[in-house]
Specification:
Blueprint: H1 8-12, H2 18-33, H3 35-48, H4 53-77, H5 88-109, H6 115-141, E1 146-148, H7 150-171, H8 180-203, E2 205-207, H9 216-279, H10 289-306, E3 309-317, H11 320-327, H12 329-346, E4 352-355, E5 360-367, H13 370-384, E6 389-390, E7 393-394, E8 399-406, H14 413-429, E9 435-437, H15 440-461, E10 465-474, E11 479-491, E12 495-497, H16 499-508, H17 512-532, E13 538-542, H18 553-564, E14 571-576, H19 577-582, H20 588-597, E15 600-606, H21 613-617, E16 621-626, H22 637-652, E17 656-660, H23 665-673, E18 678-680, H24 690-696
Parallel strand pairs: 8-9, 11-13, 13-14, 14-15, 15-16, 16-17, 17-18
Antiparallel strand pairs: 1-2, 3-5, 3-8, 4-5, 6-7, 10-11, 10-18, 11-12
Helix pairs in contact: 2-4, 2-8, 2-9, 3-4, 3-9, 4-5, 4-6, 4-9, 5-6, 6-7, 7-8, 11-12, 12-13, 17-18, 18-20
């Protein structure tokens, strides 16, 4: 290319004054030095308010675009020619820079930046800066004819690419003390390269006609404009940075305030939780004992003032310990939750209920009459009879209820609860799954049973229990064939007590398993003595219905037989027909183990219940004992026909038949006529001690 400048003076016209270079350098350094700080603020703000990210990016991009545009304006003003055309290209270049740097900050705000997106922006930034440079230069050239040096343009393109790469690098620097030097170095590099690229692009233009040089007044005007523009942009950059910093501080304070409010809410929640723990049972959500007693006292005061009646109901789960032991404590907890929900479902809005113990609940119900209390109690009993499934297993449970009434059974909390507890004790003794009202008789009875309870524990440990055996004879030859074991208690003050007088107490207090095991072991010792005397006899014993819910009872029995070296052939259990039928669903494990153990079963009191013969056939039954009520009147034709049918049916099924309660010769004759196998009763011998049995055989 030919240089057409006519003289050195005209060539000087395209030189940039040093003052304008310095102003451009300062403006570029400050603008890009703030980029890491602004980028950090944008990242922080975009994390919390993603919807406003675009606004932040456009604002920051506009700021950096104005600064870059101002740098080029100042450099353009530094040319020593008087011509300056504010063409449309200048404003198009500003708009393009705004878009370019908005994209730049949007990429910064993104959590993950793809390499492709970075490279795309580098090309975009290079094109934008190149366009801005030439828009400024062409505004200075005006309408003069010119030529371009493409080698210089290529070189300036490489420099602008370097500016783009440095811009990416500076945006990734974190704002901290260690990075101040790196930020400063990159900032200086960008500012210097911007000036160099502009100067190279300017030198790549060769015009045919040079405009006149600046006058002193025009030079002063350009300097004033450049200084004012530079100062304005520097001030604008710092103001925006301070605004972002202040906004960030506000955001931090807002977050700290939110955290403080959250802590306050948590403390408030903790206080509510403490109040919840203080007044409510954590497992069932019902009132705990303390809160229930306070509420009960308030209800009692209201009832006294209004002359109203209250029913105090003590509710206890039957056999809860068995369920807890067999299914586990977590199942026991779930059972308590289900029971509490059922209790609440049947209560009225003004009834008061709380959990006052492990499996004990107490209900306070305003009533108009005593029958109303019974209706409420029966409704609760009926609700509890619905099956309960826990972890895929049916936990059959019932409840017992004791009821005391205000004002009839007491006028204070302690007395009413004590009397309701006595009534509950009576319900337990009556076979459970029932309710009882308090009475003076119950109070006297409870005192007697409480004393027996204390004595019974001593009886087990001090060998006050003993066994009497009642003979069972074969009717065909009146020969002794077996014995029924009957436990007795030799009370030091009350004399000999029968099971009817103490077995309910043993069941209620968890002693019955110990009693039954003691009986089994004693029977084994007596069986061995009979074998030694050459008079082997089968001995049977009545098993408590509670042991049917004990999954380990059969195993424990077999272990005792093994320890005592007694064949299971000589030992068997007796269970009444009603007990067996009642527990047919509640004790499947017991009955299954009984069937597999080799132990035999005698069905006692047969003919008084409603059991299924088909179901009984699945059990290891070897014998039926007819209920004594069938033999009360030997001359009753209907009863005789029933006896005849039962004996014939049992023989068909392969079972022997024993008649109980035989005391008259007429009864013996009837049984012999109907071919009954065995008989038991005072006609053949009362229950007697083992020494007497040895003399008898």
């Amino acid at each position: 290319m030919t240089n057409l400048a006519p003289s050195g003076l005209e060539a000087i016209a395209w030189q940039i004054s040093p003052l304008f270079v310095v102003l451009s350098f300062i403006l570029g350094s400050i603008s890009f030095y703030l980029v890491p700080s602004i980028a950090e603020k944008i990242r922080h703000l975009s994390q919390n308010q993603s919807k406003q990210t675009l606004i932040y990016c456009v604002s920051a991009g506009t700021l950096l675009a104005l600064s870059t545009w101002a740098i080029n304006i100042v450099l353009m003003l530094g040319i020593k020619v008087a011509v300056l055309n504010m063409s449309l290209f200048l404003f198009w270049s500003l708009a393009l820079l705004c878009i370019n740097y908005s994209v730049y900050f949007y990429l910064i705000a993104l959590k993950k930046q793809m390499i492709f997106s970075r490279l795309t922006w580098i090309l975009l930034n290079t094109a934008c800066l190149f366009f801005v440079n030439f828009s400024m230069i062409l505004s200075a050239v005006g309408f003069n004819y010119f030529e371009t040096n493409y080698y210089k343009i290529l070189f300036s393109t490489v420099i602008i690419l370097a500016i783009s790469f440095l811009s990416i690098a500076i945006s990734e620097l974190e704002k901290n003390h260690d990075n101040h030097f790196k930020t400063g170095a990159l900032t200086l590099g960008i500012a210097i390269l911007m000036i160099i690229s502009y100067r190279i692009n300017l030198s790549s233009i060769d015009v045919f006609n040079y405009p006149p040089l600046l006058s002193e007044q025009q030079l002063f005007q350009k300097i004033s404009i450049a200084i004012a523009l530079s100062f304005l942009m520097i001030l604008f950059n710092i103001s925006v940075f301070l605004a972002l910093l202040a906004y960030n501080k506000i955001q931090q304070q807002t977050q700290e305030l939110a955290k403080a409010l959250d802590v306050a809410h948590k403390l408030s929640g903790d206080q509510s939780s403490l109040e919840q723990l203080a007044h409510y049972d954590s497992l069932t959500g019902l009132f705990n004992r303390h809160a229930f007693m306070d509420a009960f006292n308030a209800r009692l005061t209201e009832a006294k003032q209004g002359a109203n009646k209250l029913a105090v109901m003590f509710i206890d789960l039957d056999n809860f310990k068995r369920i807890n032991d067999s299914l586990g404590h977590s199942a026991g907890d779930e059972l308590l939750r289900i029971v509490s929900r059922r209790l609440r479902s049947v209560l009225r809005g003004h009834d008061l209920i709380g959990r006052i113990g492990g499996d004990e609940f107490c209900l306070i119900a305003p009533i108009g009459s005593t029958p109303e209390a019974k209706v409420i109690g029966n409704r609760i009993l009926h609700k509890m009879q619905e099956p309960i499934t826990i972890s895929g297993q049916v936990a059959n449970t019932t409840i017992s209820i004791g009821i005391s009434l205000f004002p009839y059974d007491g006028d204070s909390q302690d007395i009413l609860i004590k009397n309701a507890d006595n009534a509950l004790y009576q319900s337990k003794g009556c076979g459970r799954n029932t309710l009882n009202f308090y009475s003076d008789y119950l109070q006297h009875k409870s005192h007697r049973e409480l004393a027996l309870q204390k004595d019974l524990h001593a009886a087990i440990t001090q060998s006050q229990l003993f066994i009497q055996y009642q003979p069972v004879v074969r009717l065909s030859d009146k020969k002794l064939v077996s014995l029924e074991a009957l436990v007795r208690w030799q009370h030091p003050e009350k004399g000999i007590l029968t099971p009817e007088q103490f077995i309910n107490i043993a069941e209620f207090n968890g002693f019955v398993e110990l009693v039954d095991k003691w009986v089994i072991r004693q029977i084994c010792k007596d069986i061995k003595i009979l074998h030694q005397q050459q008079h082997p006899l089968v001995i049977s014993m009545n098993c408590s219905s509670l042991n049917l819910s004990n999954d380990n009872f059969i195993t424990d029995t077999l272990n005792i037989l093994k320890e005592e070296k007694v064949d299971s052939h000589w030992f068997c259990f007796e269970l009444s027909e009603n007990v067996l039928y009642e527990h047919r669903h509640k004790a499947p494990i017991f009955l299954s183990k009984l069937n597999q153990s080799g132990l035999k079963l005698i069905v006692d009191d047969f003919g008084s219940g409603v059991s299924s013969l088909i179901w009984l056939k699945t059990l290891p039954v070897i014998e039926l004992k007819l209920d004594r009520s069938l033999l009360l009147d030997p001359n009753n034709t209907e009863d005789n026909e029933i006896i005849s049918a039962l004996i014939a049916m049992s023989h068909k099924l392969g079972w022997k038949v024993t008649a109980k309660g035989v005391e008259l010769s007429e009864q013996t004759a009837l049984l012999a006529q109907e071919r009954c196998d065995n008989a038991q009763g005072y006609m053949f011998g009362k229950p007697m001690r083992f020494d007497e049995i040895l003399q008898m055989v």
